[in-house]
Amino acid sequence: MFSMKTCFFLLYLYLELSGRVSPAPTYEEQGQFNQTNRIIGGQPVLHRSQFPFQVSLRYNAWPMCGASIIDNRHLLTAAHCVTNDNGRLRDKTRYHAVVGDLRTNINSPTTVIRRILNIFVHENYNPSTIVSDVAVLRVESLIFNANINSIPLAANLPPPNTNCTISGWGLTDFEGDPSPILLFAHVLLLSHQTCLQSYASYLLGGMICAGFPGRDSCSGDSGGPLVCNGIQVGIVSWGVRCGDPEFPGVYASVPTYVDWIRTQQRRSSASYAVIYAYISPFNTGLLCKQAAFQIVETKTCINN
Ligand SMILES: *[C@@H]1O[C@H](CO)[C@@H](O)[C@H](O)[C@H]1NC(C)=O
Ligand SMILES: *[C@@H]1O[C@H](CO)[C@@H](O)[C@H](O)[C@H]1NC(C)=O
């Protein structure tokens, strides 16, 4: 009996091991969505300013994952959103970050689209165990406003039962369609013990669980933020099915990786500072200095 159960368990885990990236387009073809069929147990975000840090990460223009804005040049997402099944980095030029709007199927006047300039995947990320499912993306400069802003990162894990929110455009049902509108749901942070009861040895260091019966993140929400009291505590990573009370969502723990994340932000900025220093003889004064960063990244007017 035990091995049967283990077998089923493995089977379910195998189904979800590709993580929570969005599958093939379906709703866009239909051009409509089911109002009652929301993010597992969630509700529509009415004002983008409630989730100004939420990013839709597009791959070949398809909304594949979520991410969060951590400063005006960097996004935080899941490693499995930017790598293939073997853990190899995907082509960064196929990605775009879309911020500032609520819908993925139409552009609005508040839609802002940015290219991904660089991708930093955690060295310990392993696609078969999904450990260290963390990546930092450098993007073209973002200008913050009411609908676009960064989220602070947690240095410590809040206590179990803390009321948190998840958000994204992912599947609204395990076998359903992605949502064209941004949805959110309240979930509770779970203790390590509770999480172990569901996932046993699949639960590795740096993984935390959050859930609530009937509420969960699902495919397409990967890389998006788990936010508690206005601070990002987790990154949507994986789970067994979605919204199953027996199997809460698993998140990469931000407190575990916050030092690594800060290091990538510095490393990324430093690499651009070096390029700036190289071209700086062509520029004088503060205004030119600011422009130099644009010049480096758009690679248009290097001889200015
Ligand atoms: C809408 O979604 C709900 C919940 O998943 C489902 O029960 C219902 O059949 C769906 N309606 C349509 C028209 O697809
Ligand atoms: C979490 O907080 C929200 C907003 O205050 C509240 O509506 C919701 O009922 C809370 N959820 C739980 C599971 O306690």
Summary, kept brief:
This protein is of the alpha+beta class. It has helices spanning 2-16, 27-30, 192-199, 254-279, 285-298; strands spanning 43-44, 54-59, 62-71, 74-77, 95-99, 112-121, 135-139, 163-168, 183-189, 207-211, 225-228, 231-238, 249-253. The strands form two sheets. The chain has a six-stranded antiparallel β-barrel with strand order 8-9-10-13-12-11. A six-stranded antiparallel beta barrel has the order 2-3-4-7-6-5.
What percentage of amino acids are in beta strands? 25-35%
Helical content stands at 10-25%
Sheet with most strands: strand arrangement = 8-9-10-13-12-11
Name the ligand types.
2-acetamido-2-deoxy-beta-D-glucopyranose
- Please report the number of helical segments: 5
Overall radius of gyration: 19 Å
Order of helices and strands: HHEEEEEEEEEHEEEEHH
Approximate shape: globular
Give me the count of strands: 13
Structural class: alpha+beta
Unreliable runs: 1-18, 23-38, 281-304
**Terminus-to-terminus distance:** 73 Å
Describe the main β-sheet briefly: 6 strands, antiparallel, barrel
Mean pLDDT across the residues is: 80
Signal peptide: 1-23
Family: Belongs to the peptidase S1 family.
Protein name: Trypsin
GO molecular function: serine-type endopeptidase activity
What does this protein structure show overall?
This protein has 304 residues and is an alpha+beta fold. It is 22% helix and 25% strand. It contains 5 helices and 13 strands. The longest helix is centred in the C-terminal third of the chain and has 26 residues, at 254-279. The protein is globular and about 50 Å long. One 2-acetamido-2-deoxy-beta-D-glucopyranose (NAG) binds next to loops.
